[in-house]
Amino acid sequence: MTNDAATANGTDATPESGERDAPTAVGVKFGSARTTLVFDDGDAATTVQVPSCLVDGEDALPGDERVSDDEGAVRRSGDRAEFMLRSGVPATARDAELFERFVRELCERHDLPAESAVVYAMPTVDDEVGLANFGTAVGECGLGGTLTRGLPESLCASIPALGDGTEAVDEVFVALDLGATNLEACAYRHGTRLLPFVSAEVSGDRVDRRIAEAVEAETDGRATIDPDTAREYKETHADFGGFEPFTDAVERGDEDGGDGVHEFTVERGVMEPLDDYLDDAVAELSDFFSRLASSHMKTYQLARARPLVVTGGMACIPGLVAELESRLAAELDRPVDVVVPDDPTTAAAAGAHRLAVRLRDRNAT
């Protein structure tokens, strides 16, 4: 994937004005579970979110004419739903092949033109092969003929949180991404990333696995759930301000070898893993701020006067951000002001789209 801007091109001039239409600006966040697109649609911007997978025997994109609804299609497909970005990038040759098909179908479904200005919100990943696979796939999709950039996901996601434009690029702040695959933290000084930190041990995926283990332990082994079901529990029921125990049922073999249904109630299995997650996140952030103060004292002091930007899917859990703010303030022994974009799940793509517009317009002058 190239980070160099190509020469700006437009469509054919209209007979009435003789002016060329501006290339379509596109912001993209390819997530491990969901992909988000934000692109020009007339005078407005359209936001689209789909599962990051291909389903059925023909590798159909969820939600196309062969599959009626995205999330439902994935649930019904079971093992036939192939996710290719579990680590944030296509790590294997098979993943790369699926990812290229996925990107092509996504572009075709939404009629995204080749002459476009594209910014990809990129996770911090230490996988050279996966990043190379990513670059090859998006390079082959025919998108981004005008301009292509890969910019840090946490920077892109911070843009909607810090203003109506791209003010974040000119500011000093710390960004925290509570993502599915990683916990990411870094400081930004006028668009430059400083001291990036990544931990796969503190992630939404790990919480899902711990919820599955906790539910099994809470039910004395009578109920076992997979991580996808655990993620549904987390997204549907988790609430730091008012969690309510809930009941579910699983099918299992009875003592005579037949099938049976076991009903169970979850009281601790969701919130205890999330409580541990916050403790781990606060410990990692405390260490991060100590290292930032040691290596970039002025940036640290300036960032302290600015809100801590929190993004990522885990920030959608009711009460989690407020609890993080409280625990982090206690750990650092100082007030902490946290700001979150209106929709943490789409913020990275929305910010990438604003940056695509900015870069496109500058490239055209």
Question: What is the secondary structure topology, with strand pairs?
Answer:
Blueprint lengths: L23 E7 L3 E8 L2 E8 L1 E2 L15 H8 L4 E2 L9 H17 L6 E7 L5 H13 L6 E6 H10 L9 E7 L4 E7 L2 E8 L4 H15 L8 H11 L8 E8 L5 E8 L4 H25 L1 H8 L3 E4 L8 H13 L5 E2 L7 H18 L1
Parallel strand pairs: 1-6, 6-7, 8-13, 13-14
Antiparallel strand pairs: 1-2, 2-3, 4-5, 8-9, 9-10, 11-12
Helix pairs in contact: 2-3, 4-10, 5-6, 5-7, 7-8, 7-9
Description of the structure:
- The chain has 365 residues and is an alpha/beta fold.
- It is built from ten helices and 14 strands.
- The protein has a five-stranded mixed beta sheet with strand order 3-2-1-6-7.
- A hairpin with a 3-residue loop joins β1 and β2 (34-41).
- α2 (93-109) runs parallel beside α3, α5 crosses α6 (227-237) and α5 runs antiparallel to α7 (271-295).
- It is globular and about 65 Å long.
- Residues 1-18 and 64-69 have low confidence and may be disordered.
Percentage of residues in strands: 15-25%
Give the terminus-to-terminus CA distance.
24 Å
Number of strands: 14
- How does the overall form come out from the CA principal axes? globular
Q: State the major sheet.
A: 5 strands, mixed
Radius of gyration: 22 Å
- In the predicted model, the low-confidence regions spanning at least 5 consecutive residues are 1-18, 64-69
Secondary-structure content class: alpha/beta
pLDDT averaged over residues: 85
Oligomer type: single chain
How much helix, percentage-wise, in residues? 25-40%
- Our count of helices gives 10
Instruction: Give me the strand/helix succession.
Output: EEEEHEHEHEHEEEHHEEHHEHEH
